[in-house]
Design goal:
globular, 277 residues, 36% helix, alpha/beta
Length: 277
């Protein structure tokens, strides 16, 4: 079987030369945990090291994906949102933002942003919108929100004079405090029209400090920043916004699907959805 990214006919690597696949990247590690095929030995090694520190990591990332689906479904079906800006997209898998939104409203538009060129290559190849709802992709870094907002693809895909669903799931813990994550979120939210929504998740040490300390250490050793935050340190991301019930809560308990209830502390993350007044 060819390595991920290899051409099945020639066996030659179809990876842009500027990408160092010997260095793990968070999106590819997530892909490994989710059972995907777009990862390399360095990604698998780091994924295994983190799984040794936190054996439930695969359950945790699947719970994160489920939260994404519930939140986007709520925004599309109940809040009438028809356009999304998803930053930190990750390698395509089941239940992407446009999959969920366009199942409810085919005219929903989505702009995906990720800083890994491999992610964007797969996204462009695998994620297509509907005739009514275009899907676009840009390569950019969350730490540079002004660069994201000024990209022509934003104006080409989204109407920032109308409400937007801003999706920041599974990405905030990759921002160090020195990156000023509160400013980053505020900059993005400030650019959106009233009636827009923020969907955000943040890993936390509140439920199992030792496990999260070990996870963060393993991730940092692999070169990927990992900053779990307490509830008190997560709340400021929603400053000035109106939290949707049930508020900022353990992620597994945010409007769980019928029959899917689980121990609220079994997933070490908070999740919330909030409206810009």
């Amino acid at each position: 079987m060819p390595e991920p990214g290899a051409n099945e006919d020639t066996g030659t690597q179809q990876v842009p030369p500027e990408i160092n696949t010997n260095v793990p990247q968070s999106a590819r590690v997530y892909d490994y945990w989710l059972g995907g095929k777009d990862h390399f030995p360095a990604d698998r090694a780091l994924g295994d090291a983190i799984a040794e520190a936190l054996p439930t990591i695969r359950t945790q990332v699947r719970a994160q994906r489920a939260f994404l689906g519930r939140a986007v479904r709520y925004l599309t079906r109940d809040a009438g949102i028809r356009q999304y800006l998803d930053i930190g997209t990750g390698i395509p898998s089941a239940g992407n933002v446009h999959d969920v939104a366009q199942e409810v409203a085919p005219e929903s538009r989505v702009l995906y942003v990720d800083n890994d060129p491999i992610v964007l290559a797969h996204a462009r190849a695998l994620m297509a919108g509907t005739a009514e709802g275009p899907v676009a992709f840009i390569q950019a870094d969350l730490r540079e929100p002004e660069t994201i907002l000024s990209d022509p693809a934003v104006a080409g895909t989204l109407d920032l004079d109308q409400p937007v669903g801003l999706v920041l799931i599974g990405v905030m813990h990759h921002l160090r405090d020195d990156d000023d994550p509160r400013r980053i979120v505020a900059t993005l939210v400030d650019a959106l029209a009233p009636g827009s929504y923020l969907v955000l998740s943040q890993s936390t040490p509140d439920f199992d400090p030792d496990a999260m300390r070990a996870l963060a250490a393993a991730s940092e050793q692999g070169g990927i920043p990992n900053v779990p935050r307490s509830l008190a340190d997560t709340e400021p991301f929603f400053a000035g916004l109106e939290l949707v019930e049930p508020g900022l809560v353990p992620m597994a308990t945010w409007r769980p699907d019928p029959g899917a209830e689980q121990d609220p502390r079994s997933v070490y993350a908070y999740g919330g959805v909030a409206r810009k007044p």
